[in-house]
Amino acid sequence: MLNAVKRGAIVVLGVLLQFGFSILIRLFFYKYLGLITLFYSLASILIVLGILKESTRLSNDLPWIILILIFPIFGTILLITLGRNYSKNKLLRNIFAYEKKYSSDFVQDEKIKKEVEDRGLDNISYLLNRTNFVVSKNNDITYYPYGELFYPELLKELKKAKKFIFMEYFIINEGVMWNGILDILKEKAGEGVEVRILYDDMGSIAMLKPDYSKELAKFNIKCIPFNKLSPFKGIFMNNRDHRKMTIIDGAVAFSGGVNLSDEYININSKYGVWKDNGIKIVGDAIWNLTVMFLTLWNANRNEDKDITKFKYTFAKREENGYVIPYGVAPLHKDLIGEDVYINMINSAKKYLYIMTPYLIIDTDMVNALCRAAKRGVDVRILVPGIPDKKIVYTQTVSFFKVLHDNGVKIFKFRKGFVHSKVFVSDDIRAVVGTINMDYRSLYLHFENGIYMEEVNAIKEIYKDFETTFKECQELQDKDVKSGFLKSLWQAILRLFAPLF
Predict the structure, then answer these.
(1) Quick one: pLDDT at residue 316?
(2) Pair (319, 343) in one structural domain
């Protein structure tokens, strides 16, 4: 709510400045109106040319271009305050510095890397070439199709902790789920286990007290609210920590779409059945998640001189495909989250199934999905039947017709809300994580995903889709049509979706 108020205040300020400046010119500088108008136009054109020169996703930058051309002052203020002004923010600079610092702590098994190259596993090669994260084969993966199946396993593993517990979540909300976890964390902290909690201040703003970290400190639990809201810090509130992970002793880790709030385990859900997922990792891949967590932690609180003390050494086990957890950050030039998804779409041969709560995508993603369907791939996208945000859902619906007309099948989950973010294709590849198919996740947030290839758990992911499709309505021609006014409203929302 506070974030919305801040953004609204910026918009109002920008509009007032725009019109106030225009009136001032006409009252006091009317003799030079022609020159000022020319300067206005040249300045806005130069800014737009600068955006175009650096743009790698034009559909994401188009709203900025339109705003600046029509309202140069207003548009420029918005670009400065809500655009990619990372160099001006100390926390984001720290994160970038720690990413560089920890890059040497990733040690890739060269034998596995060569195997990936020799076999032409291009999706993994992309991540190896464009990130620091490592791929491993020494992992056991368990997939949970609902939060209420994931939760008991999380509690069970937390109770086993001996050295440390790291938890990073977008939302923490007091209730049955969090209270069950917190009881264990208090007990473990009392036993000398190091407990660290990182939660997003905006994501949890309506749920937790402003001084909640101090409350946890009473129990020897270290806690950091990420990107804490403050009117004196400047505005970079678009960049939230949307990641979800728990790491226990470096020996077991959890991720997926589940936040720490009751609706995620189907207690008091306002939107019918809450369809979400979790994933458990035991193996070398955990190190990628551990470094992601410690990067954000130490960017906020410089605490660890040597992070390798948190690395667990696993005994060799039967190889189980390739696993590479990866992080997404707004600092990166590459749009890793979107690129991984597009690579998945492009590599699909027989089928590609997707679960996503939101579908607000750029032309690159739309075209990739349509091309896959046109070449005969069975492309299915599973979205909520009961939305949690009406305006966001209106934008999601606006993509149904173009996708449907090009052969992409849209399924609506009749029983409630889908919060899972899952891709699976050809019984070979899958991605499970926190990355929605929307501009915020793909461009603005800190996110994490787990890419898997030839892993046994992919069979369980496929089964989850097959079961869930039976609980869905497949949309037909009549379901994707909309009238003139509705289409116009959808178009307006889509045009400015990247800004908000």
Answers:
(1) 84
(2) no
